[in-house]
Amino acid sequence: MTAKPAAAAALATVYGYPRQGQNRELKKAVEGYWKGTVSADVLEGTARALRRSHWRQLAGAGIQEVPTGDFSYYDHVLDTSVMVGAVPHRHRDAVAADALDGYFAMARGTQDLAPLEMTKWFNTNYHYLVPELGPDVVFGAHSGKQVAELREALALGLDARPVLVGPVTYLLLAKPAPGVAADFEPLTLLDRLLPVYAEVLADLRAAGAEWVQLDEPALVQDRSPAELNAAGRAYRDLAALTDRPKLLVASYFDRLGEALPVLAKAPVDGLALDFTDAAAANLDALAAVGGLPGKRLVAGVVDGRNIWINDLEKSLATLGTLLGLAGRVDVAASCSLLHVPLDAAVERDIDPQILRWLAFAKQKTTELVTLARGLAQGTDTIAAELAANRADLASRANSGLTHDPAVRARAAAVTDADGRRAQPYADRAAAQRAHLGLPLLPTTTIGSFPQTGELRSARADLRAGRTDTAGYEERIEAEIREVLAFQEKAGLDVLVHGEPERNDMVQYFAEQLTGYLATRHGWVQSYGTRYVRPPVLAGDISRPEPMTVRWTSYAQARTTRPVKGMLTGPVTMLAWSFVRDDQPLGDTARQVALALREEVNDLEAAGTSVIQVDEPALRETLPLRAADHGAYLAWATEAFRLTTSGVRDRTQIHTHMCYAEFGDIVQAIDDLDADVISLEAARSRMQVARELAAHGYPREAGPGVYDIHSPRVPSADEAAALLRKGLEAIPAARLWVNPDCGLKTRGWPETRASLEHLVAAARTVRAELSGS
After folding, report:
1. Catalytic amino acids?
2. Closest to 691 measured CA to CA, from 744, 728, 743, 640
3. Is 6's pLDDT higher than 50?
């Protein structure tokens, strides 16, 4: 049946675009600036060229309204803090002396200035800088960045829509500043913040903005009546302004729920809603409130977070239903395309047929333009695209890659007993203490050591055939020996081999498991200049052969101290991949867990007594609505236990988590039944230790005392002070001493100094505890 053309031509648009450039030009320019090899002028020139290139790519593809203001040197939430004048007291002199250096000081810290806390952007792997606010904050409008980028786009002859973090979400993401009472609620500052947004909106209108998008993703979470009332008041006040552009309020990542009627009734000019699978309920909810008569609806029907091609016919059906619910309907991705790589067409190592299943940012813009044309002009105008799309979807559904009967049979045979350790923790702990003989407050690291240019070059030489396997392995062995020698000299108690052979904590394993695909250029921003290449989890998962035993055993044979085996857990293997969307996540997690269980058992058989299975994404992947938590946590904790429950009592199982809000999943952390957990805690001043104590967490824990996402080296006294704060919550018999996270991104000089200080701090506090 041919769809009728829409009453008004639908526009295709996006909320944001990958920042880095095809060859990560932004990363290189920013890091060059930090090193002093790139000037501020050159950095800004690179940024300007990237913005213009991105806008032209979008316009060339047929995107009629490009976003501005989404580009950032480090983080868009930090940019918002600058825009509203919310600079912490400790950073104000730095910002006043040099705005750019002060900006990076807030992001990364300096030797004298601690950075802002960093945590995950909702349930993604993108990290944002948490605003610090208190009752004495004085907001002020600083819209120079936003205005300048809008003018750049308009000067190119493009229709442009500035995108800002909305005022309600900004305050809900914020935390009390240091020294402010922990129960202070930043949302109480809304009436002070709204006049600043009003001034920014007026500045953007004066610069030529017809529309401004205000992102309010926090409203897809469970919100109290007071928070919903605040949202309603905010948009009544902003809409009442006479000197403003048209306002488009955007939400994404889930359904709006009780916030949808609030925004639908607000006198704004349009809403942007997510209509992908996770938020499909938005359609029924929108109909229930009578739609948006006379208003603009931007419909997010293409998944902006995953890389699978869109089902065009399904999206067109959704769009057709929406036509009767708004004054006009435009087409968009469900969220910013920041969360996907730039271009699938440059991938050369993926089978061409499989490549047709994938849509990165450029391919998604093509899908959006196709959908907008079909909506506006009828499906006959896109008949060829629809036919090709049907064929590609069928190819994927029927592929041998996606269905392995042996893997499915094995997963179906799992019993509850497979996910339980033989003995309770207390019995295991006694066996582990006797076997390992560790001191009070044992010291360790999270796993990785600095990934030097020489190591990256060695891997590149192996891939290019410039060195053979024997030569490469000699280089890795030499690095492991150096890492072990340093750790022994520094006095660490539980060692690691340093992971010199690993390109990434997920990709390394994905490349050795069936069912995964690796990309060459699929870079996605994780934080700042840290980009990762998430592998593509395309089919059923199995492990052809051991993945880590070779290098862990090599290290253990060269020291009498225990060396941890290091694995990435099943939830993180899903969360930090582009995971298949054609079966329940729990089914996929079980397959990955069974493959990892084989690796854990092989490590133990090879003599590894401490095995760490990292799950930093456990909290990140938590659904945004509390009603969905139980089902997720059930399969997530089962997958971890299935991975780790096949070992003997004396084998100590560790896990690691970082840079997320853990307070609301402490019970799930307990349910993992790991013997030791290490967590990020330095920037939050041991908040997670207090949360564990409040829960009555009964096992061992290592809240981090060294913030590895900052270049500053903490002193031994600073680390000791954090350790003492940890002891206020966790008994010394169960407290470990470690950094916040792995050391891959750090340089050797700061790593050596920081770990030496960490060990010195542990020795100092041990002496205090013993009274000597």
Report:
1. 709
2. 728
3. no
